Amino acid sequence: MLRLSTGWIFILIIFIAFSFLLFNVTAEVQEVKTISDVLNERANLEEIVISKNSLIYDRNGDVVSEVFRDANRIYLPYEEIPSVIIDAFIATEDQRFFEHKGYDAIGIGRALLQNARQDGIEEGGSTLTQQLARNLFLTHDQTYNRKVSELLYAHELEKNYTKEEIIELYINTIYFNNGLYGIEAASRYYFNKPSERLTIAEAAFLSAVPNNPSHYDPINNSEQTKLRQEWILTKMFEASYVTEEQFEEALEEPIVLNVKQKTDLYPDYVTYIHQEFKELVAEAEGYKEKMLQATSDAERTSIEQALQERVRQLLASGIHIETSLDPFLQNLAVKAIHRQVPDSDVQASAVMIDHNNNEIVAITGGKNHKKFDFHRGFQNPRQPGSAIKPLLVYAPYLDTFNVSTQSSINADNVCFGEYCPRNYGGSQYGMVSLTTALKHSYNTPAVSMLDQVGVDTAFQYVEKFGFSSLDQRDYRLPSALGGLTYGVTPLELTSAYTTFANDGTYHPSYGIRSVTDQDGTILYSWELNSVDVWSKETNDKMRSLLSEVLKSGTARRAQVPASYSGGKTGTTNNYYDLWFVGLTDEYTTGVWVGKDKQASIEHLNDKAPHLLIWQELMR
């Protein structure tokens, strides 16, 4: 009986132990992953993302800036890769490429035998697929562990992609030294022409580089590159990719490099376009709205970082940014500023807008502006002086009271409580017309008009322009004379003046026409919104007033032969800033002159560089 009990107890213990073991084994089996699962966890094999150059174009469709960070790559789809390039790499790197499944057993065996003889890793036996796997996912360490990983990745690549897709990825990812990835970037850099125009000799010459990019650098080691080119041509001939005649001609053809540096023109304009692109993405993808709703600095910082990362991703995806840049006017603006403002410590900025199409055609960031430096065209709010009067005072006054341009206003000195503005030099002019008051830029009439309209009412007009640096402290009478807390940028003020060219309706102006992918599909474009600021009747009166400023007022030196021209000067206290913003029937242009660290430029006032720059541009 005791034996029977002991037996049952033993069986029960074994059963419990077996059940426990079975439970754990089942759990372990459920955790087992396939090689595909493991590799996909480490790298996304199903969607390989390769950085590509983005391009910025001017209004004529010409590339003005190539955008890339570490990898200069112009991606080519398979059908656009020259066959001679494919032939060169297959002949020299992987003659059985279209037959194997990612690895070549014969090649591996040959490599193992060679390595055994040399007592080290001298030969890899890697297929093009293995090399692609190494370029995409692995290091270039010469170890057997890396070789095994390379084989596994290559096998998975062959399962997920066609041979054509693999050779496309390979040709676009191989390194050609000097920061160049892919045959197209290499061809354009070393020979200054697209790869489709390469001769057989040139194609073989470039195909030599990826084997050892620094050793076969076409610029510094061209003799070594030429030797490998001859070996490549021999392999191509042996594999019947070229005829004997082609082979002989290619051997004899001299290789003449024509190195072309990265295209990076018009740094002032391109710097602005990068900022506008960021704003466009923020608007289109909701970052701007999130920023407005953020309740803490930490949250705003997080949103800003996410936006910057999104912009970086887009620029690495190979987008095309079409702009309204007019190269002639951009160059003219830069040169005019240098001519009229020779003083080394004085800066200037100009903005030109095609107000018929709401397009920024030129914008300068300052003298000798370098790409991504501080940009005085859109990053430099300054007090506008009297240049604010048409927007904040005269148009609201005319719109509110519907008076004529010849109606009278008091131009004597006057006090508003403790605030007592004075005209330039303290002069008093008695009762004058609105035309006279504006064209001579009298101060006291402007303050009187703002007082009559009401500060809040007048600012309701200006708020429609979206000036980014307006402050609640600006809602006071001294603002009639441009005494703003921070001020406005040349771009903001010029854009606001386009309202005078559009019957009192404000249309925001942009430099970007559209953003497309490489296939031409539009990804982003601005929604062309508008807002009515004042009536057409008011606008017609303002155009008349602004015209008199050039005909017989403070801007006589800026006169141009145009069917219409009008504008307004602005000078801030102590001559810290000189402004002129004006328009013709085609363009609205604004010019600012001053020092970065506010200081007097009174010595330039009589020379009127702001007027002469404007005149040069608007002729």
Give the tags:
single chain; 619 residues; alpha+beta; Penicillin binding protein transpeptidase fold; 2 domains; 5-stranded antiparallel β-sheet; 16 strands; 11% strand; protease; EC 2.4.-.-; cell membrane; PBP_transglycosylase
Account of the protein in words:
- This is Transglycosylase domain-containing protein.
- It is found in: Cell membrane.
- InterPro entries: Beta-lactam/transpept-like, Glyco_trans_51, Glycosyltr_51/Transpeptidase, Lysozyme-like_dom_sf, PBP_transglycosylase, PCN-bd_Tpept.
- With 619 residues, the chain is an alpha+beta fold.
- The protein has two domains: 73-252, Penicillin binding protein transpeptidase fold (Orthogonal Bundle), CATH 1.10.3810.10; 340-618, Beta-lactamase.
- 45% of the residues lie in helices and 11% in strands.
- It contains 23 helices and 16 strands.
- The protein has helices at 2-31, 35-42, 83-93, 105-118, 128-137, 144-160, 163-173, 183-190, 200-207, 222-238, 244-252, 267-284, 287-293, 297-315, 327-340, 389-401, 434-439, 443-453, 455-462, 490-497, 536-552, 602-605, 609-618; strands at 54-57, 63-67, 72-73, 180-181, 320-323, 347-354, 359-363, 408-410, 431-433, 505-506, 512-516, 522-524, 531-532, 565-571, 577-584, 587-594.
- The strands form five sheets. It has a five-stranded mixed sheet, with helices on one face. It has a five-stranded antiparallel sheet with strand order 7-6-16-15-14, with helices on both faces. It has a two-stranded parallel sheet with strand order 3-4.
- Strand 6 (347-354) and strand 7 (359-363) form a beta hairpin.
- The longest helix is centred in the N-terminal third of the chain and has 30 residues, at 2-31.
- The model has no long low-confidence stretch (mean pLDDT 92).
